[in-house]
């Protein structure tokens, strides 16, 4: 089934809770429905964009085009070789429900990514990650409909160009594909990943994936605002990656500036001469933690998160982000990049 709604409020489809509208909002339950829609619809030159749960988006104005949303559901166990299970999951499944389902059914690896607000399709597009784990490491392939010609295609994880919070779907392929299903390979033996501060302290003896999930959930709840109470898009900015030289020169001026290894260097600090610095620290030390501009604010417990203090307009969020980028750049010579996609 496919439904089209006209002049549709997107308030429930963006976690900032911005009151913007889509000229057409299209929801489809199967690949066939979407293919049929693409072949039969004359879009009259209007743009088309696909969204997930809207938790990583900033609508800067009403969307004058076709906004697509998947309603493709289902979790299918497609194989189990005694080490790993292969799961094929509909793009519209709620990410965190899938994480809980996988743990309850004895499939592991996703527990560190508990409570990330996303849908399964968007999780692949975004390469979501948290507490030392990235979803790309569990993805086998991503099934899509090509929005340009209605063909059905499947990409291996390698094809997708996954990187820190990035994939080709967000980059060079932006706007080309609707992700319909994601295939995962999950280990059936639980091997905890406890490298991240806050998880290291968990008692190792008899530790279960459910206990790790519970710890991750309580950590997230203590640091990150609940979008149903305070609209937000999670981390609004990426943590910038800078050269070791740049870091050393900043450290002369700011001896306590933190840094983390860039994961793609294999954990060493200087293999490619780059380190990651927390945007949260830069924003806090540029004086923005807990401050606001109009009805847009910087979350008091985690300055990486911008919040809608109530009734904010897209312009207010855009203006706040621009001011922060400007101030951080002037103070530290680092240009923060939004993780949230501006539409
Ligand atoms: N920090 C401050 N001031 C603060 C808070 C943090 O200076 O008020 C500094 C501290 O040095 C701290 C560092 O920032 O050690 C890192 O903070 P945290 O561990 O909370 O992680 P993060 O870099 O802020 C990233 C992800 C989160 C993810 C956590 C845990 C990005 C852009 N964000 O945040 O992802 O949950 O690590 O893995 O990579 C999201 O994508 O929406 C998201 C929340």
Class from secondary-structure proportions:
alpha+beta
Helix content: 10-25%
Could you tell me how far the N terminus lies from the C terminus, measured between alpha carbons in angstroms? 27 Å
Q: Runs with pLDDT <50, length 5+? A: 265-270
- Large-scale geometry: globular
Instruction: Name the strands of the widest sheet in spatial order.
Output: 6-7-12-10-11
Q: Bound small molecules, which ones?
A: uridine-diphosphate-2(N-acetylglucosaminyl) butyric acid
Mean pLDDT: 95
**What is the oligomeric state here?**
single chain
Record field, number of beta strands: 20
Number of helices: 7
The biggest sheet, with number of strands, parallel, antiparallel or mixed sense and barrel status, is: 5 strands, antiparallel
Radius of gyration: 21 Å
Percent range for β-strand residues = 25-35%
Q: Could you state the order of secondary-structure elements as H and E? A: EEHEEEEEHHEEEEEHEEHEEHEEEHE
């Amino acid at each position: 089934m496919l439904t089209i709604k006209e002049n549709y409020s997107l308030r429930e489809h963006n976690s900032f809770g911005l009151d913007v509208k889509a000229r057409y909002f299209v929801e489809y339950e199967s690949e066939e429905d979407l293919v049929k829609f693409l072949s039969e619809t004359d879009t009259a030159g209007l743009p088309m964009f696909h969204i997930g749960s809207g938790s990583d988006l900033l609508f800067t104005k009403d969307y004058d085009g076709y906004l697509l949303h998947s309603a493709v559901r289902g979790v299918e166990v497609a194989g189990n070789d005694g080490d790993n299970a292969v799961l094929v999951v509909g793009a519209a499944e709620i990410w965190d429900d899938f994480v809980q389902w996988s743990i309850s059914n004895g499939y592991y690896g996703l527990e560190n990514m508990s409570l990330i607000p996303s849908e399964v399709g968007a999780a692949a597009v975004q390469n979501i990650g948290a507490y030392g784990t990235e979803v790309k490491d569990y993805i086998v392939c991503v099934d899509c409909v090509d929005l340009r010609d209605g063909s059905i295609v499947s990409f291996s994880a390698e094809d997708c160009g996954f990187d820190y919070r990035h994939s080709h779907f967000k980059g060079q392929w932006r706007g080309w594909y609707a992700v319909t299903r994601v295939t995962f390979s999950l280990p059936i033996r639980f091997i905890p990943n406890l490298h991240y501060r806050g998880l290291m302290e968990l008692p190792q003896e008899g530790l279960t994936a459910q206990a790790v999930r519970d710890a991750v959930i309580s950590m997230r709840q203590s640091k990150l605002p609940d979008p149903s109470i305070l609209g937000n898009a999670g981390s609004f900015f990426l943590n910038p990656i800078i050269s070791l030289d740049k870091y050393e020169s900043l450290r002369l001026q700011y001896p306590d500036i933190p840094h983390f290894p860039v994961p793609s260097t294999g954990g060493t600090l200087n293999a490619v001469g780059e380190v990651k610095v927390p945007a949260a620290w830069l924003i806090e030390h540029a004086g923005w933690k807990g401050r606001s501009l109009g009805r847009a604010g910087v979350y008091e417990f985690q300055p990486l998160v911008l919040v809608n203090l109530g009734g904010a307009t897209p312009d207010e969020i855009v203006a706040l982000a621009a001011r922060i980028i400007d101030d951080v750049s002037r103070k530290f010579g680092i240009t923060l990049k939004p993780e949230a996609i501006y539409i």
